Amino acid sequence: MAAADVDAPVSNDQSPEAGESAIDDDVLERVADRSDADETAIADGLVVLHSTLIGRHAELEREHDYATVDGTRAYRVPAAVWDELLAEFEFADEVATALESAHTEQAQLVFADAVDVDERFADDDRGVVVGIDTAEEF
């Protein structure tokens, strides 16, 4: 597994709401623009999802490639991880698709910002992002 820890900032600023989900405001806005889902529904889903991901931080770390930048850990995962994760919730289809898209885009940004990570996302890779400062407090 490739792993990198970098203290450089991630590409975009975060509002308090985005900080609760580890997804940048700019990423949320881009995903909402491409989605049929309402931006508020996506943001709410991201916060709910993040609280679940905090508890899985160590499991994801053991099983998947990751990069860490400025307190945010991004994992490169297969689509099956998203299928399993989303099966636990009752998100509308368009919201579920937007959540996966937001996490994947944010993870790609983290991997790009982590200068000592050579691995990049393949077309069929997905991303999962967790704020590890919060996760490691638990």
- Secondary structure category: alpha+beta
> What is the helical fraction, as a range of percent?
40-55%
- Our count of helices gives 7
Strand content: 15-25%
What is the C-alpha radius of gyration, as a whole number of Å? 13 Å
What form results from the Cα inertia axes? globular
SSE topology string: EHHHHEEHHEH
Average predicted confidence as pLDDT: 83
Contiguous runs where pLDDT drops below 50 for at least 5 residues:
1-18, 134-138
| Biggest sheet: strand arrangement | 1-2-3-4
Number of domains: 1
Give the CA-CA distance, first to last residue: 24 Å
Major sheet description: 4 strands, mixed
- Let me know the number of strands: 4
Organism: Natronococcus amylolyticus DSM 10524
Pfam families: DUF8048
Protein name: DUF8048 domain-containing protein
InterPro entries: DUF8048
Describe the structure.
The protein is an alpha+beta fold and 138 residues long. It has one domain. It has helices spanning 16-19, 25-34, 39-54, 57-63, 79-86, 93-113, 132-135; strands spanning 5-6, 65-69, 72-78, 125-131. It has a 4-stranded mixed sheet. A hairpin with a 2-residue loop joins strand 2 (65-69) and strand 3 (72-78). Residues 1-27 are annotated as: Disordered. This is DUF8048 domain-containing protein.
